[in-house]
């Protein structure tokens, strides 16, 4: 083992250290409901009413006293109750025409579906008997008065936003978006749009990480400052970091975190703060750096995370390690680890065991199994776009066709 190199650590250990380093920012703001999807709640939402507020009909039909409904007998329709309108108490021996969502009249205990009656002029004839409680939505069956409906730390979804609306809430107190400065490193990188493909100089490639990482961070609810690309020089890296440290909660960089001569991130971060460089025992994505940067001595620290440069490695490490970090900054109580794996059959052979735990880019097929992308190189971004999930393959493990493997759906990461 190379004793001078950074220590190899498991993904679990890296995840734990990442979470330990991320203290919730504790800054919140009120946002209107239409802007709340995807945000993390900073305060519990307590219901000031019950939902639904009254017993109401789940069907178009007739509100009745169930005991009075006898197959073959008729009853008078004594009132008509549409949704949004008040009901009078139900006169004994009669029924009320009622529509979905309309309040139940006092005295009624069931709704007979309109399909189960023969409607005559102002009268109905029952085709079946009725049971109390049928087709009635009970007051408070969704939410009881005083219930904690949404909790601080919950990530809001469309259903969560709707639930808040159903309580009469118009604004939600959510965690402020973490301010993340994104920079890429590498003299070989060219921004798309600045040089046409045919004019690219030898050795130059387009900067793809900037777009992958910025998109991912935005999906994670971050406010992203794009610092563009930083040349491979220590001075340029130091000055970019110093500048970013003042106004951000996290600086995220890609590339330059190996221990080669052209890897300037480590010394630059160390000059302004501290850095741990890890070799995470996973593939793709081995090098990973976590540290802190101060704009000047005594200034508050800004978190720093350095991702590997290879496009699939930076994509994977963002999902596996940065996402939990950012969620924790937001005070989230969920999404702090890996998605729950599904057991699915591999419809491929993976004959070469790797020393490291692998995250293979795979896709579900119509037969309910998994196909693997043939080129699993960490530079092949096509594999990440093609895939709908990752197989979490333990270190030293081969996979035979038909064997059950652990599949992590990318949809569970929201990508
Ligand atoms: P590095 O970690 O800087 O040694 O980069 C590893 C590999 O990823 C090299 O082949 C780089 O050219 C490539 N790479 C680094 N940054 C980017 C980027 N922003 N977009 C595309 N490829 C990159
Ligand atoms: Mg580089």
Just give the CATH class of the largest domain: Alpha Beta
User: Which hetero ligands occur in this complex?
Assistant: adenosine monophosphate, magnesium ion
CATH architecture of the largest domain: 3-Layer(aba) Sandwich
Cα-based radius of gyration, to the nearest Å: 30 Å
The percent range for strand residues is: 25-35%
Could you please describe the fold and organization of this structure?
The chain contains seven helices and 27 strands. The protein is of the alpha/beta class. The protein has four domains: 11-25 and 177-329, MoaB/Mog-like domain (Molybdenum Cofactor Biosythetic Enzyme, Chain A); 28-47 and 149-175, Molybdopterin biosynthesis moea protein, domain 2, CATH 3.90.105.10; 56-137, Beta Complex (Molybdopterin biosynthesis moeA protein, domain 3), CATH 2.170.190.11; 342-413, MoeA, C-terminal, domain IV (Beta-clip, Beta Barrel), CATH 2.40.340. It binds adenosine monophosphate and magnesium ion. Magnesium ion is lined by residues 185-186, 255-256, 262, 309. The site of magnesium ion has 6 residues, from loops.
